[in-house]
Amino acid sequence: LFLDIMLPKMNGFEICKQIRAVKDIPILLVSAKKEDIDKIRGLGLGADDYITKPFSPSELVARVKAHIARYERLLGNVSKQRDTLYIHGISIDQRARKVFINNEEVAFTTKEFDLLTFFVTHPNQVLNKEQLFERIWGLDSAGDLATVVVHIRKLREKIERD
């Protein structure tokens, strides 16, 4: 959310404070005010960044990309270190193609591993069976879409807590 602190009816500081009380979305304050006190106030009220006008469009794009990436990681609660993904007690070593749940290795088939990795690296993305089949098995694969459902069921049995 881009928010100018100098708005006509309500100042951006107050809006930032109200939004932060109910939402955890990236908030970038934009202002012509360059004083440290304004920057400190905005960041103290929960803004993720404070950008002074005039600003470079390329810098703005870079900042937005950084905030979106951080926000998406938080949404999915996914962290990446080298070739390993971590989420909710599950470690996925992409290079060795191994999965550890609560530090215990669990055997996964190739397609189960591919599905799990896809889901972890694409949080909050809704796909139907056809789209998953296309992404995991490939366009040229011959097969029944029911195989997607079966693999997801087996995957869930392995990773879900009772």
UniProtKB/TrEMBL annotation:
Single GO term (MF): phosphorelay response regulator activity
Pfam families to which the protein is assigned, alphabetical: Response_reg (PF00072), Trans_reg_C (PF00486)
One biological process term in Gene Ontology: regulation of DNA-templated transcription
GO cellular component: cytosol; protein-DNA complex
Residues modified as 4-aspartylphosphate: 4
Annotated ranges, domain Response regulatory: 1-68
Stretches assigned to the OmpR/PhoB-type domain: 82-162
Keywords for this protein: Cytoplasm, DNA-binding, Phosphoprotein, Transcription, Transcription regulation, Two-component regulatory system
Major location category of this protein: cytoplasm
SMART domains: Trans_reg_C (SM00862)
Location of the protein in the cell: Cytoplasm
Highest taxon listed in the record's lineage: Bacteria
Keyword Ribosomal protein belongs to the record: no
Signal peptide: none
InterPro entries named in the record: CheY-like_superfamily, OmpR/PhoB-type_DNA-bd, Sig_transdc_resp-reg_C-effctor, Sig_transdc_resp-reg_receiver, WalR-like, WH-like_DNA-bd_sf
Feature: DNA-binding region: 82-162
Keyword Cytoplasm among record annotations: yes
PANTHER family reported in the protein's UniProt record: REGULATOR OF RPOS, STAGE 0 SPORULATION PROTEIN A HOMOLOG
Protein name: Probable response regulator
Organism: Bacillus cereus
